[in-house]
Task: structure prediction
Amino acid sequence: MIEPAPRRLNGNGHEPFYHFVVDPRQAWSDTCAVRIPRRNVGDIRYLPETLMRCHTSLEGRNLGNVWNVPMGQTKESHYAVFPPALIERPVAMTCPLEVTAQGPKRRMVEMVPSEESRPVKRSVGKYTKPEEEIRLKSGRQDTGRQYIPRKPVTVGWEPDLPAIRRGIVLDPFCGTATAGEVALKLGCHFIGIELYEENVQIAEDRCRQAYLLRSEFEAKHPMKASTASFDEALNDTMPDEVQFGLGFDFDAEVPWEEAS
Result:
């Protein structure tokens, strides 16, 4: 199917997804949030389907490098909408839900042995000769040994400090706020910048509906507020209309205020 937006690949092609960070060694990530189900392991979803369409499993296997994502659909007059499934995984994997004074909380994972749904136990390598000869020729000391399958089990979060705010997703070209809808459903804050007023109205409606869905979920599964400021952030409501803060008039070189 041909994409409705020009200069995009069709449904049978591939588009690269880039992840830029300042320091890869310190970049926050939560790969458990985007793991996919595996056989013979309990399917524990990261979030229910109403909040996250992608089927994830906290104790599943690693997500591959190629994702099959359906085309974006909307009833509004927007002909280049991104599919939410394309945004859910990057946001869940790279935007923390709780941020402390020393940085975002990281998931502590322990790899626990698990049983595979295979009739025969697997071994490292595909050789039939004696182990000593195989290791000498292959250069690997683990060749021929029995493979032990493991699954990730969450044992806690660190640092064990009070949370002061949630993670923030910024979209400088938000359009109808598909990224905002996903961010709010996943429990993050969202900042969107858009040029066209008609898109802003659609974005407000989508974000407000996403916020209500997340509020219903947190009412049944309440998050424990660690500090007063974080409690205010948890209970922060969506404004009835967009509010513009302090800006700057570059021609007159003086600040100005504008409110919708």
Residues 240-260 have pLDDT under 50 and may be disordered. The CA atoms of residues 16 and 66 lie 9 Å apart. DSSP finds five helices and nine strands in the chain.
